[in-house]
Design a protein that fits this description.
Blueprint (H helix, E strand, L loop, with lengths): L2 E6 L4 H9 L7 E7 L15 H7 L12 E7 L7 H7 L3 E5 L6 H7 L5 E6 L17 E5 L14 H12 L4 E5 L7 H7 L3 E4 L1 H4 L4 H12 L1
Parallel strand pairs: 1-2, 1-8, 2-3, 3-4, 4-5, 5-6, 6-7, 7-8
Length: 222
Amino acid sequence: MIEIIPAIMPRDYNDLSGTMGLFVGVVPLVQLDIMDGKFVPSRTWPYPHDSFFDAIVKEEQGMPHWEDLDFEVDLMIGDPEAWVAKWVAAGARRIIVHVESMQEFEIIRSAVPSLVSLGLAINTTTPISAIEPYLDRVEFIQCMGIARIGFQGEAFDERVLEHIRAIRALRPKLSISVDGAVNFETAKRLVEAGATRLVSGSAILESGDVREAVMKLKDLVQ
């Protein structure tokens, strides 16, 4: 079954809590797009510093809606090695690191316990050879569907279809996510190419009815 994952770019803690709340009872898991303003121009919570996040990492408080909603984090940041363990402590179910920002895979891999899934993201402009050495050491790959990452509402990049097909040929059973320009026009094509998870931001959040938008995407690809 194809998994639909709403994507959230949290401006601050209150925005995070409010937006996550929209999906309680709608989906089991959401993606948080985390950006430091260095690896990509945009910046989101908890950068540059947030006391709520510090308390969550110390387990002094939980993530918003933690009893009802799991989350994965897409770390669009310049120093993922320094942050992976913090997000594990914060309760992330899945950790996504971009191969273009990664310096030491072993540091990242060792920081992610067996109960948490590790995925590598790859841009449309990056050759598949960049992730091939790690395909047997991660739980999934996230293919970016846009050329300019870190923004919602960007145009679809056809090159993502080639990436999906190439990865599927190399690893027939590996989970493949797609993030960026996942909408009602592109969803079916992505699944036909081999995607198993669809991460969608603006198509869901700007629909006016997030539950209806999620169901529409599911109906398109099941």
